[in-house]
Design a protein that fits this description.
The protein contains one helix and ten strands. It is mainly beta and about 150 residues long.
């Protein structure tokens, strides 16, 4: 069965835990995921993907997630810190306040699937997400590791 695309207005809210799942540098995509096993009553996997990402500030997880367009004042503030022309980009705010997170991107898409959860994304199926391989050789470590003084 082919997927349908529905156009909806923002804001949109998800009353479930959502976490940072992957940032795909080469494709400038941010993938957030609400897992099936994130709590009782969650039988679907939620995915949110931002495409053509220019700038972002996100938390590693949200107990619930609201995505909305930035207000005029918030967008002006972001334009001061995200240089260059914004061409088709929009400022998306994650939550009630700008400090909760933002993404400057060309588009956002989301969907839910009841299929068995896997490491692959159903919204970004063409990209093989990196996986930790404990048997792969490790690169040589640096001779010196720096840290600010005094340590905490």
């Amino acid at each position: 069965m082919a997927s349908q695309r529905r156009l909806v207005d923002l804001p949109v809210s998800f009353a479930r835990p959502v976490e940072l799942f992957a940032y795909i540098i080469g494709h400038s995509q941010l993938l957030l995921r609400g897992r099936q096993d994130s709590g009782p009553g969650y039988s679907t996997t939620l995915e949110v993907v931002f495409k053509d990402v220019r700038a972002l500030s996100v938390l590693d997880g949200y107990p619930a997630l609201t995505i909305r367009l930035a207000s005029g004042e918030e967008e002006r503030e972001l334009r001061e810190v995200v240089p260059g022309p914004w061409r088709g980009d929009r400022a998306f705010v994650l939550g009630e306040r700008l400090l909760g997170g933002f993404v400057v991107a060309g588009a956002v898409y989301w969907g839910e699937s009841s299929a068995a959860e896997s490491y692959r994304s159903f919204l970004v199926p063409e990209y093989q997400l990196p996986q930790l391989d404990m048997d792969s050789p490790r690169p040589a470590g640096p001779r010196i590791i720096y840290s600010p003084y005094p340590p905490h």
